[in-house]
Design a protein that fits this description.
By secondary structure, the protein is of the alpha+beta class. The two termini are about 25 Å apart.
Length: about 170
C-alpha cells in the first residue's frame, strides 16, 4: 500500500471515478447496462457535491485506482447512518488495480476520517451478494448490524455493518 496516496477527489477526477465505479460494479455482476443504478454510480459529480469523495491514486503515475464516498447522517447519500456515525458507500477499485490493497486503504482512510471527526462508529450497507467486500470489512473489524439491514428494491437485500471506534 506504500505506492498509494489517498486524497480528496478533484473535479478533474470525476469522470474517471464514475467510470471506475461503474466498471467495478459491472465486473462483479452487480449492475448491467440496463440497470438504473449504473447511472447513479457514474454520477461522481453529485457525490463530489453532496458528500466527501476520496480517491486512491498510484503515487508514481497519479492514476486514479479507486474511490469511496464518505457520507454524514442526514445528507443526500446517507442510507443507514445515525447521528455520531460516519457512513461510506460506493467503494470501488479498478479491475487492473485489484489485489494491491486499494479497497483496504480506502476503508482505512474512512475510519481515520471518522476518528478525526469524533464519530463513534463507521457504518455501511452492502448487497448480500458482495461476499469479497464482506470479507474485507470483517477482516478490518466491522461487525454485522442486522437490525439495520434493508431492501431498497424487491430482491435487493442490503446487509449493514459497523466499525466501532476503539477507545
Amino acid at each position: 500500500m506504500a505506492d498509494l496516496v489517498i486524497r480528496p477527489a478533484t473535479e478533474a477526477d470525476l469522470s474517471v471515478v464514475g467510470a471506475i465505479t461503474v466498471e467495478a460494479y459491472r465486473a462483479d455482476g452487480f449492475v448491467d447496462a440496463h440497470d438504473d443504478y449504473a447511472s447513479t454510480l457514474a454520477d461522481a459529480a453529485s457525490r463530489y457535491r453532496d458528500a466527501e469523495l476520496l480517491v486512491a491514486v498510484d503515487s508514481v503515475s497519479a492514476v486514479v485506482l479507486g474511490s469511496v464516498t464518505v457520507v454524514r447522517p442526514g445528507t443526500p447519500y446517507a442510507e443507514v447512518s445515525r447521528p455520531g456515525e460516519l457512513e461510506f458507500r460506493m467503494l470501488s477499485v479498478a479491475s487492473a488495480a485489484r489485489g494491491r490493497g486499494v479497497g483496504e486503504a480506502l476503508v482505512r482512510a474512512v475510519i481515520a476520517r471518522a476518528r478525526a471527526a469524533g464519530a463513534g462508529s463507521v457504518v455501511l450497507s452492502s448487497s448480500e451478494r458482495m461476499l469479497a467486500a464482506h470479507r474485507l470489512y470483517e477482516r478490518l473489524g466491522f461487525t454485522r448490524l442486522p437490525e439495520r439491514d434493508w431492501s431498497p428494491l424487491p430482491g435487493l437485500n442490503l446487509r449493514a455493518y459497523a466499525y466501532g471506534m476503539p477507545l
